[in-house]
Amino acid sequence: MRFSSQFDNRITMPFQNVLLIDDDEDDQEIFLAAAKEVSGDVKCTSLFDAREALKKLEIGELVPDVIFLDLNMPMMNGQQFLTEIKKKLDLKSIPIIIFSTSANDDTIVRMKALGAHDFITKPNRYDQFLTILKKLLN
Asked: How many distinct helices (H) and strands (E) make up the chain?
């Protein structure tokens, strides 16, 4: 597990409204449990489909302070979602944190070039997950 510090614009402010886009149900459950444990004030919404998330963001049904985005998803992957959201004037300022099992340096650099604010490799252990979220949500 590595907590990437590749980006100069690392987000350190607290968030109250979090959107998680991840097609893995187990990863969603772990994320939501850890977020609740870290901060009971954080409202987390999770979606399996990046296309659905983009539609809900475009119509204003979702207004997150930050988006945690998995890369490896069917239909619309994380890179495609990131590319699309950064084209939308009213959405492109939402910080997007890539949260993925992919961790090679080329992928990290490419996601930063597309506008990701941070890149975090999914940890293997729950306590590591808590540590990561404490740094981001508090």
From this structure: 5, 5
